[in-house]
Here is the input.
Amino acid sequence: MVAIWGSARLSAHADNTMTDVTATLTTDNRQVGKNDSLGTIIYPKLEKVMANNVVNGQITRRTDTFEVTYSGQLGIGSAYAFKAVYSAVLNPSTIKAGSQDLLAQLGVASNSTNTLNLDGVTATSVLSSSIGNGTGWYLGFNVMEQNQVNGNRVGIAQMPTPVQYPLTPTIDNDPISDSSTVITGKGTFAGDTVSSDASSATAKVGKDLTYQLAVGTGLSGKSNVTVTENSGSTYDTPGTATATVKPAAVLTISSVTPNVQLVPDDVATLTTQSDSDVINWLVKAAGITAIDENTGTSDDITFSSDDTDLGTKINQLAADGTLTVPIYATKAGVKSTAVNVTISKSVGSLSFGSVSKNVAFKSTEVPVSETLIPTTDNWDVAIEDTRENGSPWSVYATASKMQSADHELAGNVVYVDGTEQTVMTNNSVLIKSGTRQNNTSTNQITSDWSATKGIFLDAQPGVYADSYQGTVDWSLQDTATN
Here is the structure.
């Protein structure tokens, strides 16, 4: 016959894994401590014993569950009968028994027999409490006989002295940020106290074995932190866990062009802006970037400077002077090293922005009279001007003779503006002039060209039919029209 019996008790602890401890027990059949007479006792044999909360194969003071496999019989004298039998851990002064009567589990009526067949029986017994600090423990039974009030301690194997259970707390995050104000993790037993070397605060391990330990700003400046779990009981040895503390951010900052030259428009704009707006402008102009090495991204990074009143300083900067502004990356209270941006002033510049490279005149039959031939595409000529408002400019163009491989065109490249027509062939012609206005950097020179304005080919009658080519040279001057 194989039978399994047991009882259950909820207990929040670290390890309910059952471990074989048979080899640690020594067979020692006896009544333990002061008992009533049970006559001649027949002792069963322990075939296998499993226990929970075992450390290095040893039963601990936290062990409260045994799973025992027997062979043979448990018997008492013929003049006696079993009233109740409980699997138990016992010593001369204490009985820690399971909560269920084995007679009931085996279907044996109380007071009906003096012999129990335990051959092949496995019993799981959850004790009323863990073993604790006592010594001289036996594994056996609490036997109650029909005519007796008190239980009798019947031992079948002596146990080694239970060892203390080593507490093993954990920390959820390793490494942990120095900006964290709470350390979380798991403890070994519910109700234990967790403390740390980061603050004087303590926390209790919950029923789910987790803890939340508030440490305020205690992690700031630390390279590591250690938490300690203590049960306040001699059942256990305090345990620790250590985690590395890392800065909330590890920032690297760089600049592509740390020397920034301001044109007049820049000066006018920055003079009226706040320090934060000036810094953001300089970050873009200097190509400043920053990375948090912890995340590999620039998320949540901002830029700042210890310098103030930047707009006024820029406005007062002499034409031949420089202003150095240290700019830092910041995140989560962490500040990077500085990038020094050196600012100087410029009078600005005047240059062509875009000039059409190839423009074709329309194909036309040989004219019988002087004919103006337009282009197939629109001209695109623009200037870029970053000087002060009111600065003058003039655009001129000169055309070469139009030639084919065999002929020179009878006619000229001309600039037409309504009814006025000016020969451009070998002649510098004023196309447009003006002054910089309204802080506008780009000026489209050819934007108003039309069917009556622009560069045309003035072909004369008798021109040879051929394919002609020539060039138009553009020039830009920073002076007013003569």
